[in-house]
Amino acid sequence: MPNYISNTSCLIVLDNIDMLFILKELYRSIIITPEVAKEFEKPIPEWIKVKDVDDKKYLKLLNTFIDLGEASVIALAFEIEDAVLIIDDLKARKLVSKLDVKLTGTLGVIVNARKKQIIHSLEDILYKLKKAGFRISNELENEILKYDGL
């Protein structure tokens, strides 16, 4: 099973809509960095493992292009076998795609949760996400809603 490494945005938005459990149900455990834990600003559940980045120089280099939280999870992905990053930030996603690292985002997580019947309505989740300040284009929302009839 892949090792899922999450950035802060997915944790915050799912926590804000009381759906953080989705990550546990899907992946059993996820990994974050101390930088992400600090940004999350809440107690970390026991099923979330906090791991430091060993290569601080690589972390520092990445941090010149993107925020520290994103930089730390990308750096960690190179240190952990079979890593999949959960990142929403567009700039970080573009960088990750150039680095040939597996990637998903909060929306990918909820679609996967729907496919595995952990949640029963993407429409309800999308409504809650938008109400909590998560931005999504109408086009992408319509694309995601195609999975609601599973």
Written description of the protein model:
- Helices cover 52% and strands 11% of the residues.
- The protein is mainly alpha-helical and 150 residues long.
- The chain has a single domain (3-149), classed as Rossmann fold (3-Layer(aba) Sandwich), CATH 3.40.50.
- A three-stranded parallel β-sheet has the order 1-4-5. Strands 2-3 form a two-stranded parallel ribbon.
- Helix 6 (90-98) links the parallel strand 4 and strand 5 (102-104).
Topology:
Elements: E1 3-6, H1 8-16, H2 21-27, E2 30-32, H3 34-40, E3 48-50, H4 56-63, H5 68-77, E4 83-86, H6 90-98, E5 102-104, H7 106-115, H8 122-131, H9 138-145
Parallel strand pairs: 1-4, 2-3, 4-5
Helix pairs in contact: 1-3, 2-7, 4-5
InterPro entries: PIN-like_prokaryotic (IPR021799)
Organism: Defluviitoga tunisiensis
Protein name: Nucleic acid-binding protein
